[in-house]
Amino acid sequence: MQLSRDDLKNAYTKMRTIREFEERVHKEFATGKIPGFVHLYAGEEASAIGVCMHLDDVDHITSTHRGHGHCIGKGCDINGMMKEIFGRQGGLCKGKGGSMHIADVSKGMLGANGIVGGGPPLACGAALAAKRRKTGGISVAFFGDGAFNQGTTLESLNFASVYQLPVFFVLEDNGYAESTSSDWSIGGHNPVLRARGFGIPGERVDGHDFFAVYRAAEEAIKRIRNGEGPQFLHIEFTRYYGHFEGDAMTYRPPGEVAEVRNFLDCLTFFKARVTSGGLLETAIFEKIDTEVARLIDNAVADARSAPPPTTAEITTDVYSNY
Amino acid sequence: MGKKSFRQALNEAMRQEMERDPNVILLGEDIAGGMGAKGEQDAWGDVLGASKGLLAKFGRERIYDTPISESAFIGAAAGAAINGLRPIAQLMFVDFFGVCGDQIFNQIAKFRYMFGGKATTPVVIRTLFGAGTRAASQHSQCLYPVFAHIPGLKVVVPSSPYEAKGLMIQSIQDDDPVIFFEHKAMYDDAEEVPDEPYTIPLGKAKIVREGSDVTIVAIGRMVQLANQAAKTLDNEGISCTVIDPRTVSPLDIDTILASVRQTGRLVVVDEASPRCNIATDIAAQVAQQAFDALKAPVRMVSPPHTPVPFAPELEDLYIPGPARIQEAATELARYSA
Description:
The complex is a heterodimer. Chain A has helices at 5-30, 45-52, 68-73, 78-86, 119-133, 151-162, 182-185, 191-197, 210-225, 256-263, 266-276, 282-305, and strands at 60-62, 139-144, 167-173, 176-177, 180-181, 202-206, 231-236. Chain A is α/β, with parallel strands linked by helices. In chain A, the strands form two sheets. Chain A has a five-stranded parallel beta sheet with strand order 1-2-3-7-6, sandwiched between helices. Chain A has a two-stranded antiparallel ribbon with strand order 4-5. In chain A, helix 2 (45-52) runs parallel beside helix 9 (210-225). The radius of gyration of chain A is 19 Å and the shape is globular. Chain B is globular, with a radius of gyration of 20 Å. At the A-B interface, helix 5 and helix 6 of A face helix 3, helix 4 and helix 5 of B.
């Protein structure tokens, strides 16, 4: 692993952007200005960024209902994202998708997904097309511990294995499918072994540790690009908020989140590791934090002042001709 | 030109489009057949043989036999479409849509809208449907109304080999997702089909026969039966227009309304279960938009609201036939308020 100063700054900036974005969405949601539901990615940043740093424009990702972090990882426009979440004109999907369907196909981001397990088959298809069209692209299917028990995901693991498709299956295990523990719901209790049963190699990493995710993703993606077929990664971490905003989280033991925030937070861990190694200085982080806060401030202000979609938009974009 | 079966017409349409556009691929269970087995490759060419022979011409880079995993390969067709291909996925029997419904209804159908018009998903899902082959309850349904209900999908139900070829080529070239319904009992029907490629637009009904007393709208295989009934009725002095909508989504209601304004009488023949089918939809639209033109109530000819029965005597009773169509049209022609 050779992370340059620029790589490290970039990694931190993007993780910080996700954190700030989500903390602000949390606050804005509480004011009632954001319609519908939002599912926040705070606490999981090392996964999206540790994986997406190895991707470029020819690569595709599919995401989940908790998709803001993946969007930022894949380079979606922050202002367009915020407007989309507010349901405003200028949103990435013109305000017609919202948080759960936020997408930017031009960036290879094939959508957050309101359906648990909705993404893996799509990732297989994008990979099949990449292989057939020889674009050199790969697909990453991000999915949660809940989706790991869905037929769509299991079918996709098999399909990708049978056709040796360039797909990276990334299981983001935050411990809970809604309120149900992943320790309980994943039969066999060993996701890596399950993937191996499909002939797909994989490993488990601590998702609080950016460097562990980065290294594992780097190796897996290298194998995929070498034509070695689909790979699997089980990333364990903790989500800081509820399943959705408003979830009272009574199913979690008291202090669970606070403990992780205090002792395992991926951003704190990253800073400590990088500063103690003398790779970046504390002042750099402070500067990035300030810049990111300003970026998100602007995005929120922009979204708040943006007009709603025009009424004519209700009947456009259904078919290619209307 | 020459007589071709429904199966051959479909095969020719797919072959010509695959020759024209290297981005067209096929995916499905036994779409060639024999994958990984020690015997013949292209053993089936899909379950009823419509893609037989394409493997030899286009190879495994274009034709993907899949495990029995409808969610995986229907969803993969969508992902491949977003990434530049034009997949034709074969959902063996439409009765199986339940195992991949999410990928069709929530993913394929909605990408364009949810993503603000920035996604194009040119997928064709070919699927077999219909009663009359003793295939019983789980392999005989007419589920096109279920798909017509979903905005974002186009739903094509061809009524003959000629129609099948032109509509299939158009469906492959269309930028929207299309569910293409192929009636099993029509696979060996043959008629004159041009050798060269041609298209039939989606959303434009065909007036199969023109008459002045009763308008009969019929869907898919029912068009033939309605035509037979109309011939008999003609001998009895009742002159019927027969309309084939060709696609149930979009539905060419204008052609239907124009005819109803001339005849004042409407029979809709639909092989789908009678509740919330295409006949009820057409009846409702005509009632809303041409009530003044109606000289008699609208009649719907559909099966009973039951699963498709197995015993041949029961299945024959289940399927709407020419006799029921004649009866309905005659009743309308003689109706007086």
